[in-house]
Write a structure and sequence with these properties.
- The protein has 9 helices and 5 strands; from the N terminus they run E-H-E-H-H-H-E-H-E-H-H-H-E-H.
- With 182 residues, the protein is mostly helical.
- The strands form 2 sheets. It has a 3-stranded parallel sheet.
- Helix 1 crosses helix 9, helix 2 crosses helix 3 and helix 4 runs parallel beside helix 5.
Length: 182
């Protein structure tokens, strides 16, 4: 199972909840962090985006999924996080067992979450946050770039995370029961 969504929607929380149910969590971002560390480069949102774009440009837009698939036993449950390009989804769909979940939250809720978490390099103004959203959605991005908007359009399910973590946990539990995985 894969998860996509805009920053601070709750994709990480979704993955952690599934991990607590025995799913193994794999992240595209972990691939990028490892690449950056191996090249002795600083790990930031910007450098990870650059590295992801460089890999997709050089090896094809589905390359990050191909790299993850070598770590996967298709008879087990996984949750793959930070999917940001539709070609990554196309590669995963070829397994015949892939489901994509879009975790969504209203923009104002996501902005407040981002301000509250106060990570270094996070946008600190609403204008900066909107610019990040537009970039992540795919505005001005090449085909091998960030295209979360296209990923969202390919989602099999959408879970709205607009309340408390406890409310979201209930939604995730109902979702897991609905689709019959455990």
């Amino acid at each position: 199972m894969g998860v996509t969504g805009l920053p601070c929607s709750g994709g990480g929380s979704f993955a952690q909840l599934l991990a607590s149910k025995g799913f193994e969590q794999l992240s595209y971002s972990d691939i990028l962090r490892a690449e950056l560390r191996a090249a002795a480069r600083e790990v930031t949102r910007e450098t990870m985006q650059e590295q992801g774009n460089a890999i997709r440009s050089e090896f094809g837009p589905g390359e990050l999924s191909r790299r993850l698939l070598v770590k996967i036993d298709l008879t087990k449950n996984y949750v793959l996080t930070t999917i940001r390009n539709p070609a990554e989804i196309e590669v995963l769909r070829q397994t015949g067992v892939f489901v994509l979940v879009h975790v969504d939250a209203p923009r104002d809720v996501r902005y407040q979450r981002m301000i509250s978490r106060a990570r270094e390099n996070d946008p600190v103004t609403n204008e900066m946050f909107l610019a990040l959203d537009n970039k992540e959605l795919g505005e001005g991005q090449p085909a091998h770039g960030l295209r979360i908007g296209d990923c969202i359009a390919l989602a099999d399910y959408t879970l709205v995370n607009d309340g408390s973590l406890e409310d979201f946990e209930k939604k995730v539990e109902a979702f897991v029961q609905e689709i019959g995985v455990s």
